Structures are given as structure tokens and as C-alpha cells.
TrEMBL record:
It is found in: Membrane. GO terms for molecular function: calcium ion binding; carbohydrate binding. It comes from Capitella teleta (Polychaete worm). This is EGF-like domain-containing protein. CDD domains: EGF_CA (cd00054). GO terms for biological process: endocytosis. The keyword Ribosomal protein does not apply.
Length: 211
């Protein structure tokens, strides 16, 4: 009589996962998502996306170790079966925005997202981020530019005033509007210069003092 040797009782028969004893031998098996390697002992990832049926996914199949994930093209969402993709009425949901952060535009094969003025579409094609107009060429502002959320604001250096177009800067005539000098005032580009009448000299503080 011969007694069957139970190879699985020693070191799991060398199997990395499950060992099955059979008369005169043994065999290894792997859990779902893995397949037996060529050495008959180890288990390696099984790419379900290459099974000839796209893993059962309606649109895109993404392989992960031991499993897979189905994904849908823009304008569709994954069904409860985690495989099928359903058209989610494009822009009808979320107050007409669909899954877009700002503006949803319906096109023939789904939807296309866009952004309000002052924003630009991010790489995911759904969200919007502020556009820094101050970094664009040609320059938006004559002198200085301050970026704001969704817009920008121009401002001028001391001695200048922002024009009605909110872009260019013009010299501010301090002598006419502020009258900063005690005696005489001469406007200069971006500034002014004080002077004194005969018999007086200009003090460092800008006042006129007698000789």
C-alpha cells in the first residue's frame, strides 16, 4: 500500500496563497484578481482589462493590483453595477451646470465645460481656476497691476492718477489740486517742486523761511 504525502502540510507546499492536496501531488491556487505564475507556486496580478471584454466596463477599464476599476467618458457617470456608464443628462443637473464648476455647454456627444471671464479651465476639464491677468503679455496695466479673483485692478505710482479707462496713468498736478507748497509750486512729471519768493529760502521741511 502507498500512503499519499500531504505536501500542503509542510510550508503550504511552497504556494504563496492556497495549497490543495490531490492524490499523489498538490496544486496551488490564487484569489480572485490574481493568477498563477509560470512556476505554479506564486500568484501575480491578472489584468482583467485584457480579458477580451474590457473587464466588463462600458467605457474605460483601468487595471489595479488584484482588481480593476471602470471609468466613464466625460458626460457620463458610472452606474451602480460599477461597470456600465449612463448619460447623466449632460447639463440638466446642478442648476444647468451638470458636473461643470461654472458653465456647462451641451455638444453632440455629451457636454463641454467652460469658465466665466477671468477664469480658465483646469486640466481635468471640469474645474475653473483664476486667470492671473497681471502675468499676461502684452501688459494689461500702464504701471502696476493687482490680480483679484476672476479679474484684476490697475493702479499708479505716487504722483500719478488712474485715467478713466482704468488702465493708463497720467501725471497728477499736485500744484493745482493739493497746493502743497507755501509760496510757489512747479509741477513735474510724477512729482512737484516747491520754491520761495524773493527774500526767503526753502527749508528742508518744505516751508519758506526768511534769510
Amino acid at each position: 500500500f502507498f500512503t499519499d504525502v500531504r505536501e500542503c502540510d509542510e510550508g503550504n507546499g511552497g504556494c504563496s496563497y492556497t495549497c490543495h492536496n490531490i492524490p499523489g501531488s498538490f496544486k496551488c491556487s490564487c484569489p480572485s484578481g490574481l493568477q498563477l505564475a509560470s512556476n505554479g507556486l506564486d500568484c501575480e496580478d491578472a489584468n482583467e482589462c485584457l480579458d477580451g471584454n474590457n473587464g466588463g466596463c462600458g467605457h474605460e477599464c483601468s487595471n489595479v493590483f488584484g482588481s480593476f476599476v471602470c471609468k466613464c467618458r466625460p458626460g457620463f457617470r458610472l452606474d451602480v453595477d460599477a461597470r456600465s456608464c449612463n448619460d447623466f443628462e449632460n447639463c440638466a443637473l446642478n442648476d444647468g451646470r451638470g458636473d461643470c464648476q461654472q458653465i456647462c455647454n451641451e455638444i453632440d456627444n455629451g457636454r463641454e465645460c467652460s469658465c466665466y471671464h477671468g477664469y480658465q479651465l483646469t486640466r481635468n476639464g471640469v474645474n475653473c481656476t483664476d486667470t492671473n491677468e497681471c502675468l499676461e503679455e502684452p501688459r494689461r496695466c500702464h504701471q502696476f497691476c493687482n490680480n483679484t479673483e476672476g479679474s484684476y485692478r490697475c493702479f499708479c505710482d505716487v504722483g500719478f492718477v488712474l485715467d478713466a479707462n482704468d488702465v493708463t496713468c497720467s501725471d497728477y498736478d499736485e500744484c493745482m489740486y493739493v497746493q502743497p507748497c507755501e509760496h510757489t509750486c512747479k509741477n513735474t512729471f510724477g512729482s512737484y517742486q516747491c520754491g520761495c519768493l524773493q527774500g526767503y529760502r526753502l527749508h528742508p521741511n518744505g516751508s519758506c523761511v526768511g534769510w
